[in-house]
Specification:
Elements (H helix, E strand, L loop, with lengths): L3 E4 L2 E4 L4 E7 L8 E7 L6 E6 L5 E3 L7 E6 L4 E6 L8 E9 L17 E2 L3 E6 L1
Parallel strand pairs: 2-11
Antiparallel strand pairs: 1-3, 3-8, 4-5, 4-9, 5-6, 7-8, 9-10, 9-11
Length: 128
């Protein structure tokens, strides 16, 4: 099995920044997509950002221009730099792995159902 552990969440004021980290403590296949998802109380889990094996990234429209996803293959680590945070960014953030790219351009999927491996989540709270 693949084990993922997130860290870096916390409480900040609107306009602040946080950097989330995700470390794979077990084997992950190099060609897999990885991504960040978030879930607020009473809402569905949504895709935030995703990255493929060639470091090509995709973002939800709501975070584009504010968040940056990156990875360090040598460390088996995934990161999410979050700037200009808004109260609506408040959620439990999850690291996910194990998806395969789709289509002729080999893009990573944004649906949570395509990712079989998940971390336990790290809380991000943004106050106005």
């Amino acid at each position: 099995q693949v084990q993922l552990v997130e860290s870096g969440g916390g409480s900040v004021q609107a306009g602040g920044s946080l950097r989330l980290s995700c470390v794979a403590s077990r084997f992950t296949y190099a060609s897999w997509c990885m991504g960040w998802f978030r879930q607020a109380p009473g809402k569905e889990r949504e895709g935030v950002a995703h990255i493929d094996s060639d470091d090509r990234s995709r973002y939800a429209d709501s975070v584009k221009g504010r968040f940056t996803i990156s990875k360090d293959n040598a460390k088996n680590a995934l990161y999410l730099q979050m700037n200009s945070l808004k109260p609506e960014d408040t959620a439990l953030y999850y690291c996910a792995s194990g998806a395969e790219t789709l289509g002729v351009e080999f893009v990573c999927p944004q649906s949570a159902t395509m990712y079989p491996y998940w971390g336990q989540g790290t809380q991000v709270t943004v106050s106005s």
